[in-house]
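Internal tracking record. Fields below are filled automatically when a chain is submitted to the structure queue. Please do not edit lines marked as system-generated. If the sequence contains nonstandard residues, flag them in the REMARKS field before resubmitting.
Queue: standard
Priority: normal
Entity type: single polypeptide chain
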Amino acid sequence: MKIHLRQIPQDGTLHVEDEVDTAFLELEAAGAAAASPLHCSLDVGLSDGGVFASGRLHLRLRLKCVACLEEFEQDLDIDPFALQKELDGRESVDLSPEIREDIHLALPAYPRCDGDG
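SYSTEM-GENERATED OUTPUT FOLLOWS
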């Protein structure tokens, strides 16, 4: 997800609401698959030579249960999502690596279809 820095108002934030293709997440390497696009609702702003973003990420996942080996779907919400990134002189900043990392960290290590009881 790329943000053009000139779109961000001075002393304010830019609200970004978007549905993003999930190919960049590389979920297959973690034994998961996306069952929906990634929904991002972020406020992006500038501060002291960096860019910050905060908000919410939502994704519907398709996982395989470690107990019964059946596939099931589960929602993944990262709320709050937050990041701070240094600016390197470019006109745009790519938030994709940080989004991918947070989603991979939030994936269940041992997905179970009876996880909710």
